[in-house]
Amino acid sequence: MVEELNAEPGLEIMEAGERELSDFLWLARPLVIFADGPNDPRFVQQMGYIEARPEELLERDVVVIVDTDPSAESPIRTALRPRGFDLVLIGKDGQRYLRKPNPWDVREITRSIDKMPMRQQEMRDQRGL
């Protein structure tokens, strides 16, 4: 299933499995998407948003983690305790910056990322300031 979720080479879309949020500390910004099943209309809509604009997430060091099996009790599901559909954005520093019970457009997600202190510093560094 993970292969079919990959929107474009480079943007990592992975199943939660046995991964832990600490695996991404200081390396990437996990965008965790929970649902009670892969056919949840909100999950399908969210993945459509991501597949339409993967380059904007890739540019911001985002990895997409999906968990559509509540019975598997993945470590990430246990840590974040979602109810039904849930979108959670974690910063590189491990902080939870955004949690939404409904799908969010990539533009809204990237605006939230661009307000994070570490992302602000990354943008300054890219401009050479």
What does this molecule look like?
The structure is a single chain. With 129 residues, the chain is of the alpha/beta class. It has 6 helices and 5 strands, in the order αββααβαββαα. The chain has helices at residues 2-5, 41-52, 54-59, 75-80, 106-114, 117-127; strands at 13-15, 29-34, 62-67, 86-90, 96-100. The protein has a 5-stranded mixed beta sheet with strand order 1-3-2-4-5. The longest helix has 12 residues, at 41-52. The N and C termini lie far apart (42 Å). The model is unreliable at 1-8 (pLDDT under 50).
Quick take:
This protein is α/β, with parallel strands linked by helices. The protein is built from 6 helices and 5 strands; from the N terminus they run αββααβαββαα.
List key phrases describing it.
single chain, 129 residues, alpha/beta, 5-stranded mixed β-sheet, 6 helices, 5 strands, globular, disordered N terminus
Order of helices and strands: HEEHHEHEEHH
Termini separation comes to: 42 Å
Q: Which of globular, elongated, flat, extended, rod-shaped describes the shape? A: globular
Task: Count helical runs.
Answer: 6
Give, in spatial order, the strands making up the sheet with the most strands.
1-3-2-4-5
How can the largest sheet be summarized? 5 strands, mixed
Q: Structural class, from helix and strand content?
A: alpha/beta
Strand fraction equals 15-25%
What is the helix fraction of residues, given as a range? 25-40%
* Rg result: 14 Å
Uncertain regions spanning at least 5 consecutive residues: 1-8
Record field, number of beta strands: 5
Global mean pLDDT: 92
